[in-house]
Amino acid sequence: MDYKETFEGKTILVTGGTGSFGNAVVDRLLTYNIKKIVIFSRDEKKQFDMGNKYNNEKLQFIIGDVRDKDSVFHAMNGVDYVFHAAALKQVPNCEFFPWEAIKTNALGAHNVIDAAILRGAERIVVLSTDKAVYPINVMGMTKALMERTMIAISREKRGKTMLCGTRYGNVMYTRGSVIPYFIELMKAGKPLAITNKDMTRFMMSLTDSVDLVLYALANGKDGEIYVKKSPASTVGDLAQAIVEIFNYDKGVKEIGIRPGEKMHETLVSREEVLRSEDRGDYYKVNPEVPGMDYRQYYFKGVEDGHGLPAEGYTSSNTKRLNLEETKQLLLSLNEVKEELNNFKK
């Protein structure tokens, strides 16, 4: 889908913009005739490296933290569109430091949304996760609060800013994800440690994650959440695919499910099915009630979903990749190709 007209002459703010998603979305946005991309984050070294990588005058870097209202308000000056990607994403860190996750993932999101409205931004997309659906860990709980904050504020209709969100599972080869972890284990000469071979995970590329967020920004309405349809693989097949691709002889060992992990990822819950719609490559989850009429919230229900599985959309009922298909998908990633070339030397 071509978003050339959508981004023509626009200024875009990316919070947490030095991360994997930030770099991928900047790659895409620079192909459009945008006015400026503002990268807002708290890591000066990553900003320095990113500035050297792109060496593009359309990029502006601002040091700040989404926890700080003033720095967010400053960064929002003159911004048309916002991609809110800043978050604490590591499940164990959030478990050990839950209040820090609350301050960044929930309160920080409120600061970004509020600043966008006060500064008159046109549209904001908040990036959420499968862990926000039936959350069993702090990271998921705080992301669920972020979603609910976005939906609640969208009902208020303050100003002109459109608020919507996206959800996706683990994105392949992003920082902290399982594929680079497996490769690091191989480099250390250790067997690949998996929690449970029958566990399933969505297999989504960075390109897919950018497609999803751009689709939501261009098509979203207040309070909606968008999900991209993606295939899934078992963790056992994923590990075995890497072992075979790299011809690795240390094998795989199963260590058991860790606290805060699920057997399967859920992107649309059973309860949300009734207010969701099939949009081709995407599912759209509508808010429970679009306005501030409390009577509708308490007394008006919904009748039917549109094209979704009754049990919700999960990594156990989406298209399942077999071992060979998983290998082919991994081999399509440039990062895996590069590691494979280096691994053979």
Q: If you had to describe this structure to a student in words, what would you say it looks like?
A:
By secondary structure, the protein is of the alpha/beta class. The protein has a domain at 4-170 and 204-230 and 268-314: NAD(P)-binding Rossmann-like Domain (Rossmann fold). It has helices at residues 4-7, 20-29, 44-54, 69-75, 91-96, 98-119, 138-156, 178-187, 206-219, 235-245, 294-299, 323-331, 334-344; strands spanning 11-15, 36-41, 59-63, 81-84, 123-129, 162-168, 192-194, 200-202, 225-228, 232-234, 252-254, 266-268, 276-278, 282-285, 313-314. A 9-stranded mixed beta sheet has the order 3-2-1-4-5-6-9-14-13, with helices on both faces. Helix 7 (138-156) links the parallel strand 5 and strand 6. Helix 2 (20-29) packs across helix 9 (206-219), helix 6 (98-119) runs parallel beside helix 7 and helix 10 (235-245) packs across helix 12. 43% of the residues are buried. The mean pLDDT is 92.
CATH class value of the domain at 4-170 and 204-230 and 268-314: Alpha Beta
Q: How much helicity do the residues have?
A: 40-55%
Contiguous low-pLDDT stretches (5 residues minimum) are none
Percentage of residues in DSSP E strands: 15-25%
* Number of DSSP E strands: 15
CATH architectural group of the domain at 4-170 and 204-230 and 268-314? 3-Layer(aba) Sandwich
Mean pLDDT: 92
Biggest sheet features: 9 strands, mixed
CATH-wise, what's the superfamily of the domain at 4-170 and 204-230 and 268-314? NAD(P)-binding Rossmann-like Domain
The SSE order reads: HEHEHEHEHHEHEHEEHEEHEEEEHEHH
Strand order of the largest sheet: 3-2-1-4-5-6-9-14-13
